[in-house]
Automatic annotation (TrEMBL):
Entry's family note: Belongs to the peptidase S51 family.
Species name: uncultured Gemmatimonadota bacterium
Ranges annotated as biased composition (Polar residues): 1-12
Biological process according to GO: proteolysis
CDD domains according to UniProt: GAT1_cyanophycinase
Record: active site: 146, 189, 216
Protein name in the entry: Cyanophycinase
GO molecular function: peptidyl-dipeptidase activity; serine-type peptidase activity
Function: Exopeptidase that catalyzes the hydrolytic cleavage of multi-L-arginyl-poly-L-aspartic acid (cyanophycin; a water-insoluble reserve polymer) into aspartate-arginine dipeptides.
Catalytic activity: [L-4-(L-arginin-2-N-yl)aspartate](n) + H2O = [L-4-(L-arginin-2-N-yl)aspartate](n-1) + L-4-(L-arginin-2-N-yl)aspartate
Family annotation (InterPro entries): Class_I_gatase-like, Peptidase_S51, Peptidase_S51_cyanophycinase
Amino acid sequence: MIAELNGTNGDSPTRRRTDRHAGKLVLIGGACEPEGAALGSFLDVCGARDGGKIVGLTTASADPAGSARSWLEAFRAAGATHVEIPILDRRDRAQDRRIVAMIEQAEGIFLGGGDQVHLVATVGGSRVYRAIREAYARGATICGTSAGAAALTETILAGGEPDEYGQMQAVHIGPGFGLLGFRAMIDTHFTQRRRLQRLFMVIAQNPELLGLGIDEDTAMVVEGHLGHVVGRGSVTFVDGRGVRFDNADECREGHPLTLSYLRVGIVGAGYTLNLRERELEVLLQARRDEARGQGELQVLRSDDGPSGDARPGGEQRAADDLAEAANRG
């Protein structure tokens, strides 16, 4: 069974494959509005309003067929013209070469929400999984919302909601699809479901990871090592590499979390996170500009006149001030 929205004649041609990841990732925190900026960023990047083909997978949902119908309506409302959603609800269907062929011809691949553990268990290592990775390498855009976004990292997080005292309940940490590197782990519905404490605890136990908490109806559009935020909310990033003390082991036994020097930042819409450096790109750019300015510093000096006198006092003082500043530097 295939749900399809087709406003074009024929299939889009398969793009030339490359050996590097030339595509983009659109990571949505869930609950995206059809006409909102978060989902719109995916449609813009893959050209879906101009005939670019989207192939969706609703495997993470408890009702893949019902979810497929809902997403077809959402994409139609958003202006997409060519969407196909094969109903991939079992592990054996992840080996279906017909679905692989659809993915090979897609400009955009969409992973819906639900259960990221089920999604990875059903699709991971299959022909469909390999086709998604190859599509990303050749330049296709991969978008995930909620569980679909969480599954795109190397390490996924599920369960583990803390109780009212901040004590961690059962949590699942396991391998994901690995399209987003940088040791990142994604938590979705972040502000709306108050998941900051959960991410703190997981990062305290795994300080090498970069935690990304994405709000609802908010997307991080990743190209290379830069993640640009669009939509209604923000993305919280948590870096545990500088933590000086934590009681992560005690948390596993039901004790509340204690830690110090955890690094946390918030990236609002319109700003960009450098995933490689784990810092706001605007700050890194300011540092680069400052270093470049220091390297190009010019010192003005007065020229001797015919009588050997220096230029009048104003210019002389300016030159002296610049020279003094250079010496101090």
